[in-house]
Design goal:
Layout lengths: L1 H29 L2 H27 L14 H30 L8 H27 L7 H7 L3 H29 L3 H31 L5 H13 L3 E4 L3 E6 L2 E10 L5 H18 L3 E8 L8
Parallel strand pairs: 3-4
Antiparallel strand pairs: 1-3, 2-3
Amino acid sequence: MAGNSKIAIYGAIGANSLIAIGKFMAAFFTGSSAMLAEGIHSLVDTGNGLLLLLGIKRSKQEPDEMHPFGYGKEVYFWSFVVSILIFALGGGFAIYEGIHALQDPHVIEDPTWNYGVLIAALVFEGTALYLALRAFNKSRAASGNLIRNIVQSKDAATFAVIIEDAAAVLGLSIALLGVYLSQQLQNPYIDGAASVCIGVLLLIVATFLAKESKGLLLGESATPEVIAAVEKIMKDHPSVKDWTLPQTMHFGPDSILLVIEVDMVDSMELLDAENTMQSIRNEIQQKEPIITQVFIQSTNNLEKNM
């Protein structure tokens, strides 16, 4: 998953860097408030991509005494930071700039720069969104509702890029419509209103991303499919009579902690039980490699065979 995430992030960084330059140039030559807001949006997205790459890199650190389960949640932390930056810098500045434009409106004399940059930006952002969606589809079953799949996903880096790119495409569409209507109707207030709408869009996106990242930081369980696979192993094992509900927690997109209590068949001796639990542990990690830590506790009163 990490490799797919990096491809999506590199694509987003490249697209946003070029687009930000173009938007700032268009805003400079035309004075469009919506274009300036979009330029800040792309600049923030570029920085966010770099932060996500940092999170992926730091999440690969080996476990140590202070972090015995590893650093996998670094990705979730930096995704949360990204949501804050989108909210504060992206959404906040867009709304501020829109209100400023509404207070001191100016008609855009020649929107050619704006049209050219916005159309090119839509192509670049659309390509980046396609790459992110393709990377996301490789890490899940490519079916069902996209929003629901994002909510259920544990790959924060990839779905953060998808959310950012989708917001960028919508923001560009709003900016393009705002510039067009402002020019056609000779109404400068429309351009400022478009900037405010872009800001509100970014606030909504940032709130959604923050909510998802927070849930992963606090510790979300494995998907129902993974838990069902563990329970099937328990059910099929001849030495297991019963078991508790598997307790799981994600420590990263590709790392799950599993804790489970099992009730062995009667009269099982301690050594046999230990061998059985090790066998179950090996089978779980072989069939579900995403489960990297397995702790199995027997509820039986076991004694050594004297």
